[in-house]
Specification:
Elements: E1 2-6, H1 7-13, E2 26-29, E3 36-37, E4 50-51, H2 52-63, E5 71-73, E6 79-81, E7 83-84, E8 105-108, E9 114-116, H3 124-131, H4 133-136, H5 142-147, H6 152-162, E10 168-170, H7 178-181, E11 183-184, H8 202-205, H9 223-229, H10 240-249, E12 282-288, E13 291-297, E14 299-303, E15 306-309
Length: 313
Amino acid sequence: MKRLYPQSLVKQFQFPNTPKFNEFDISAEFNSKGGFWFKEDLNNIKPDEGDIFWTICHELIHGLGFYNGWMGYKNNPIAVIPLPIYVNPDGIVLKNNLFSFGSSFIEFMMDKYTILLSNGTQISQFTQKLNTFFDEYKSNAFSDEFVNSSQFKFAQDLLVLATTPKSLGLLPRNSKNYSIDSFILETSIPFEQGSSLIHVDYKTYINTNDFLMTYNIIDGISTDNMILDNGNYSGGPIGPKLKQMMETFGYTTADNPNPYRPQPFKSPPSNVTSKPNINSGFRTEMIRNLNVLIIIVSLYLQIHRLLFNIRLT
């Protein structure tokens, strides 16, 4: 199974041999006309303003790996598929290799922990089944052949799951009960690329201490007041389930100083390098009213315990 890992998480793993890292783990741009409220202004937040701190915390968590590449197939989605990417023989992924139909589907790190809440099945099983399409078809006529293939049914099934309430969730490591312990993902109708599946369920969590990773930032209320209104959790905006998932991903916390570490990867090919490049990373564009946010995350590819550097140029 191939998965993209954020550079920040790869650094947490502290492997003995890694490629040179990009200069920045995460780069972000925020529109100055986005209607943000800054606590430092000492003015009360207005009904049409969003707390910039809430936005920054939310996007930081995305940049640290709370993200995946599931996308709608066709403009008015008739199915959902993982991100198709072509990986060069040397392990480098060029910017033009993203959305490379005709190449295999590649998961993001978060997909490793995404399950069906009905039975605990990993969503990766769908990716594996979808990728058998590329074993059968080698031509560039992806669209027609894929829609008519036996594998297309799995993509249609994914669309149903992605638009069925409480159908998918994130399972923390060492969980004893997936139906209780899972962090429920956003699966509202219609499927919205950049919103569905990369956020937690709005109705379930917006009025809890795990409000941070819902898809909608509420105007007119500060982050501090959201925390107070939802139980004054000691972790601030990082709620208990979110904290547990970040620990599951591999991040160290005071309560979990020795998180999961993959077995050491083999050394990458000697010709794999990563010169600092402000254009490196996976670009996502998210629109919140007038606020256009661009997050650029440096990513690495894990392939069967081999670590390769990804450079998007």
